[in-house]
Structure formats: structure tokens, C-alpha cells
Amino acid sequence: MNQMVRIIFNPQEIKPIVAEAKKKGQKVVLTQGSFDLVHIGHARYCEKAKSFGDLLIVGVDSDEKVRARKGKNRPIVPQDERMEMLTHLRSVDYVVLKELGDPKFSLIKAVKPDVLVATKGTYDTATIRYLETICGKIVVLEPMATTSTTGKIRLMQMKTANSIKDKMTSKLIASIEDVLAEFKDD
Q: Which of 87, 122, 123, 161 is most buried per CB count within 10 Å?
């Protein structure tokens, strides 16, 4: 199937796809996230999510939504690329964009999944109880990798800062030595 056909920008457009799947007796699974800098943890997570049903729908936070949650320097990868990248994972059937202004839980309410898959810490107990009134079942998974996108970004920033520090330190020392040599010659 064409990757672009599997990308949906209006969450309401997933409803007929879900209705058709349920009519065929398929179990629909939904998961959501930013999926910035897609890494092995994301692939493992989607693979595990798919194991709970037949059709996996992945809600992806828009650039604006990611910035509001994670800061002005995020996301690293634009939403169109993040969404397309996810369609290349064999476990992902459809990808749906989630905008900042969307009502809370609007994708969950549109899909009404048989199984909602979330990462540990995403929802508190009261929210899970509320979501159980919309979804058939909620599965909470542990992170699937030893690192996160935020962790990878932090590591890159630290390596860059150390590299700059090392270069500046040697240049600063050389400059100080040059100035001291000028005083010595006076």
C-alpha cells in the first residue's frame, strides 16, 4: 500500500477505516506520541502494540504540539517526515496527525480502540479509569530502549559543548600566552 495513503491529517477520517476493520472482526489498537528521531525503542514499541490486535493506528503529535510540550527546539524531525517514517515500520497500519488545538482525547474518542497502548507514566490512574470507558482495554508498556529521543539530544548537546570547550580552551591558552609574550618582550 502507498505510504501516503496511510497518513491521515484529519482524525475524523480514520472513523470509516476503523468501522470497516471492526465490521471484519478485526481488533483495533491505538497508540500515540511524538516519535521524534525514530529509534529502535519506537520500532519495538509499535511492534509490541501491534501484537495486541490486527490494525495499529499511531497518533503523531504535530510540530506545534511537540513544541508546546517539549520546548522551542523540538521536534528535531518535522511532522511530515516523522509520520512517513512510521509508515515504513511493518507494524504500523495508519498514522494520524494530532494537532495542538484538538480537544483532549479526540483521537481516542474517534477511534474507540479495542486496545489503547501507552508508555508507563503517560496517564495517571484516574485518567486510565476514564479512558477505560472509551476503550476496550488499556495496556501500559515499559520503555522499549535504554535511551530516549530526549536522552539522545542531550548527549549530542553535551558532546558538542565539550568539543567547543576543548577547542576554545586551547585557543584561549594560546591567546593568553601570546599576550604574556608581548609583555615579556616589553
A: 87
